[in-house]
Design a protein that fits this description.
Blueprint lengths: L1 H18 L1 E2 L1 E4 L3 E5 L9 E3 L4 E2 H9 L7 H4 L8 E7 L9 E6 L2 E2 L2 E5 L2 E6 L6 E4 L11 E7 L2 H14 L41 E2 L3 E6 L3 E11 L3 E11 L6 E8 L8 E8 L5 E9 L17 E10 L10 E10 L4 E4 L10 E4 L2 E3 L1 E6 L12 H13 L4 E4 L8 H10 L2 E5 L11 H18 L5 E5 L4 H7 L1 H4 L3 H19 L42 E3 L16 E4 L7 H8 L5 H10 L8 H10 L11 H25 L8 E4 L22 H9 L4 E7 L4 E7 L10 E11 L7 E9 L4 E7 L13 E8 L5 E7 L16 E6 L11 E7 L4 E8 L9 E3 L4 E3 L3 E8 L13 E4 L2 H4 L3
Parallel strand pairs: 1-21, 25-26, 25-31, 26-27, 27-28, 29-30, 30-31
Antiparallel strand pairs: 2-14, 3-4, 3-6, 5-13, 6-12, 7-11, 7-14, 8-13, 9-10, 9-12, 15-16, 16-19, 17-18, 17-20, 20-21, 22-23, 23-24, 32-33, 33-36, 34-35, 34-37, 37-38, 39-40, 40-44, 41-43, 41-45, 42-44
Helix pairs in contact: 5-6, 7-10, 13-14, 14-15
């Protein structure tokens, strides 16, 4: 009898918890769109899905924004106010229910109307806006009508700039530096800054619902985010957790939280019932896990990316006795947690201060790239397939860090989850770039919310390495101080107030008092680092002695061109996308004249093609005066020169990593937002430029680096191994240096040397150039092939060294190249596998063989070659071509592949 009574008591206690219901979240997906005066859309346009944007919805009737000249022709869209409308029935409204209408991203300045009532106004596309609407909802059979009136971003930016000017206040720069048709006053709006155009991208002032709109039914509160900060001691890992909870209530309430992670702890971890204040409704707790239960998360190339699913389950209710029956009290967050520590080491040395990341106690040279939004329209920027292709490509190119640039977005959850999975550490800029920003009370409050919401959302990701509050603003202020004149002090004071006084402290919401979950925040990039950043602006944010730098040169880098900087967070070289990508933009009836006109129109660099011409002329024999008549050659030479310059720069930086002299190189940029001359290594359609294929070798580990030192006439060879082994074992290799003449396929001399490399070690050789010359030849007549073989004679690293600029070499011959197309069986039915082996035979060394698919039926399909732009010094070479389609079995012939070599422009026989 006693057991029955006890069981009954327990049942009475837990029954309300068992009967409690989840917070219900419903996405509003059926919308219509019209312009405010109904001139363009007399009948509302049906919106197929959310996310949505006006440019996207008008594409079928008005044309694709990325079509020829449409960045200018469709600018009228940005000059109009647009209205999104939807209607919905009320799902439920119990006696204790609350209803939120939550906008996860509106682009940008908008008024929200519900059933004719002004619900609120938005002015920041990076902020989540949530409104309690239960008192405004109409019960079925009446419908609820929701309208979002999105104000013209162009008109709003200009109006705000005019208001400042009338007060005698300036916020430079007014307009982007660009030779393209761009728009001004981007810093007036909390909108993706690149939307106004720039020196590589179009002006595309988007408007729309770029993230979901949801209705949330709940009783008291909603679990929004959970920050999991990780700390480690000799025996345990500690998950230091903060649950961020939203409630509209003006009184305290009760909550309990249960954490499930079967791989980490056998029993659920329970945070017992707590009374929470409505003013700061957060829960903080720690979970301790024995070290032996945890496998570490490592950056790409250093180990596996182990992620543990952890579920956080919140119940919130008003009564101390627990929730009532059927109350919507339960909300959840499922996170994937990677266990790792990360530090930024800024130790004093004889030069200044180091600047390198240490992960799990291990110093790591950061080999990476800068990322811009995957599409110039925010509503299309989170496409999973596109993001997966881009980030997987970075991983396969042996990169371990990706910088999210401050002119773009705080990326989607998909982006950061992919970065976690691929081992790509994320250097996250906040969305402020190269401008001053007004510091009105209203704007600063909006920016505070922006900082807090995005920090809370991103903080749990293993990939998040550091947050930087802006891109190049400190450098902009310092460089232009004299031009600002009497306004300089005001602008600098406002900068310090916003970024050092408001945004950086706001990011402390994801910091801890007793340990650092991650470095930072850092105030600006480039900078003198975190430690050296004082109360005043740096005299030289580009100092090579500490912090990070941004580097750009018109010519190929030499050992003297770049300073011995500690960390290069931005550098790059320009090129043109492949011909097929340009023709895809032009569509049918493309001509050479239209192609040349499109290339000219999309060259937005303030100095036009001059930097690219100089880059090419440094190494290659291209006639710079008549590129319009030789577009294929222009594309080829641009991509070869970009690949050569980037490779040489990366090798130079990697050769300096001993004693932590240089510990990072992030290439500008991985991807692109349209087909145009730019610094990207992957074009807008996902096709690899030569530089990306080359990166798979020049970023690999182990790797061979060979740099010519002109003053001493020596070759400085560095063999570097960048990985982690617990035992720090030494691996023994054999290094071979083969000397070739340009007119002979076989090597003339060879040098061999045995070396041993431990984990994360490097070895250096200094070889007189004279020692590798063949008989009485000159350096113009020879080149070197350098191989690294393991003890099983497998080639583990490979490089070529050219002692002189390519344009100066002597003896190059027609390689008499032949191409065969072979293919494996594509299968007996769908899904087909379209993989081809291209057999290339030559009789003489072939320099920078460039392959391009030109079959009109397949050229627009995403495809890739296993190698391209390569030098062939063997009679026969196989290259794999993969075409990304499984809907048909493709047949190719040799004439479907166009081939270029540098020999055809330089061969002397």
């Amino acid at each position: 009898m006693l057991k029955i009574i006890i069981f009954s008591v327990i049942l009475l206690i837990i029954l309300p918890l068992l009967q409690a219901k989840k917070v219900q979240v419903i996405e509003l997906t059926k919308w219509s769109l019209r312009d405010s005066d109904s001139v363009i859309a007399a009948q509302p346009i049906d919106v197929a899905k959310i996310p949505s944007g006006v440019y996207t919805e008008l594409a079928k009737t008005s044309g694709d924004l990325l079509g020829p000249n449409n960045d200018v022709n469709l600018r009228w869209i940005a000059n109009k106010t647009w209205i999104y409308s939807t209607s919905f029935d009320m799902d439920e409204l119990g006696h204790d229910s609350l209803v939120n209408l939550t906008f996860h991203g509106i682009d940008t300045v908008a008024k929200i109307w519900l059933n004719g009532n002004l619900l609120g106004e938005t002015d920041n596309m990076f902020v989540r806006y949530s409104y309690v609407v239960g008192h405004l909802l109409q019960v079925s059979p009446k419908h609820n009508v929701l309208e979002i009136e999105i104000i013209s971003p162009l008109m709003e930016a200009n109006a705000r700039a005019k208001q400042l000017e009338e007060k005698g206040i300036g916020a430079p720069p007014s307009c982007p530096q660009s030779s393209g048709d761009v728009e001004c006053h981007r810093n007036m709006l909390r909108k993706m800054q690149m939307s106004f155009g720039g020196d590589w991208n179009p002006a595309a002032l988007s408007s729309g619902l770029w993230k979901p709109v949801t209705i949330e039914y709940y009783t008291v509160a909603v679990l929004r985010e959970v920050d999991v900060a990780l700390n480690r001691n000799d025996t345990h890992w500690t998950m230091d957790c903060r649950a961020f909870i939203n409630t509209p209530d003006s009184e305290s309430f009760y909550a309990q939280l249960v954490v499930y992670a079967s791989d980490l702890f056998n029993e659920p971890f329970v945070v017992k019932q707590k009374k929470l204040s409505y003013t700061s409704p957060n829960m903080e707790f720690q979970i301790h896990i024995p070290k032996e239960k945890v496998k570490l998360w490592w950056p790409n190339g250093y180990g596996a990316q182990k992620l543990y699913p952890v579920s956080f389950n919140l119940k919130s209710y008003r009564s101390e006795d627990g929730p009532s029956l059927s109350s919507r009290t339960d909300s959840q967050k499922l996170l994937n947690i990677g266990f790792r520590t990360i530090e930024l080491v800024e130790d004093e040395d004889e030069i200044g201060r180091t600047f390198y990341f240490r992960v799990n106690g291990h110093p790591i040279f950061m080999k990476g790239v800068n990322f811009v939004p995957a599409h110039t329209l925010p509503e299309l920027s989170a496409d999973t397939e596109t993001l997966q292709h881009l980030l997987k490509s970075a991983q396969e190119a042996n990169m371990n860090m990706i910088r999210v640039w401050g002119g773009g977005l705080y990326e989607s959850d998909t982006f950061y989850s992919l970065a976690d999975s691929y081992g790509l550490l994320v250097w996250q800029d906040m969305a402020f770039t190269k401008a001053t920003y007004p510091v009105t009370d209203e704007l600063m409050n909006s920016m505070r919310i922006e900082a807090a919401q995005n920090a809370q959302r991103l903080a749990h990701h293993a990939s998040l390495a550091m947050i930087v509050t802006n891109n190049e603003i400190e450098l902009y202020l310092v460089k232009n101080r004299s031009d600002f004149g009497s306004e300089a002090k005001r602008l600098e004071d406002e900068y310090k107030l916003l970024f050092r006084g408001i945004l950086a402290p706001e990011l402390n919401i994801i910091s801890r008092n007793d340990f650092k979950p991650r470095p930072g925040p850092m105030v600006s990039t480039p900078s003198m680092g975190i430690v050296e950043s004082g109360k005043e602006l740096a005299k030289d944010p580009q100092s090579p002695h500490c912090g990070d730098v941004h580097l750009y040169e018109d010519a190929t880098p030499s050992q003297n061109a770049y300073p011995e900087a500690r960390f290069i967070s931005e550098f790059g070289f320009i090129s043109l996308p492949m011909r097929s990508s340009w023709l895809r933009v032009l569509g049918q009836n493309a001509t050479e004249e239209k192609l040349a006109a499109l290339i000219r129109q999309r060259q937005h660099h303030p100095r036009g093609f001059i930097p690219l011409f100089r880059q090419i002329a440094y190494e290659l024999p291209f006639n710079l005066q008549n590129w319009e008549e030789n577009i294929d050659e222009f594309i080829y030479f641009s991509q070869v020169s970009q690949a050569m310059a980037t490779k040489k720069a990366v090798e130079l930086f990697r050769s300096r990593r001993d004693n932590y002299l240089t510990m990072g190189a992030l290439i500008w940029q991985l991807n692109d937002v349209w087909i145009a001359p730019s610094w990207s290594s992957i074009d807008f359609y996902g096709n690899y430029k030569l530089v990306h294929l080359w990166a798979k070798e020049f970023l690999a580990s182990p790797s061979i680096i060979a740099l010519y030192h002109e003053l001493s006439n020596h070759i400085n060879i560095t063999i570097t191994r960048e990985d982690f082994r617990e035992d720090r074992d030494t691996i023994f290799y054999n290094l071979f240096i083969n000397t070739y003449l340009w007119n002979d396929i076989y090597p003339k001399t060879a040098i061999a040397r045995a070396i041993g490399l431990g984990s994360n070690a490097l070895d250096k050789l200094n070889i007189p150039l004279e020692s590798v010359l063949y008989e009485k030849t000159t350096k113009e007549e020879i080149f070197l092939e350098i191989l690294l073989k393991d003890q099983q004679e497998n080639i583990v690293a490979h490089n070529y060294f050219y002692p002189v600029p390519i344009k100066n070499i002597v003896g190059l011959r027609n390689p008499e190249l032949q191409l065969e197309v072979l293919r494996s069986d594509c299968g007996t039915g769908k899904p087909y596998v379209n993989s081809f082996s291209l057999r290339i035979t030559v009789k003489y060394p072939a320099l920078f063989i460039f392959l391009e698919l030109n079959h009109p039926n397949y050229v627009e399909m995403r495809h890739s070659f296993s190698m391209n732009g390569f030098t062939q010094t063997v009679p026969r070479q196989n290259v794999q071509l993969e075409i990304d389609t499984d809907s048909e079995c493709i047949k190719l012939n040799p004439h479907d592949i166009s081939v270029k070599t540098m020999n055809q422009y330089m061969a002397q026989v």
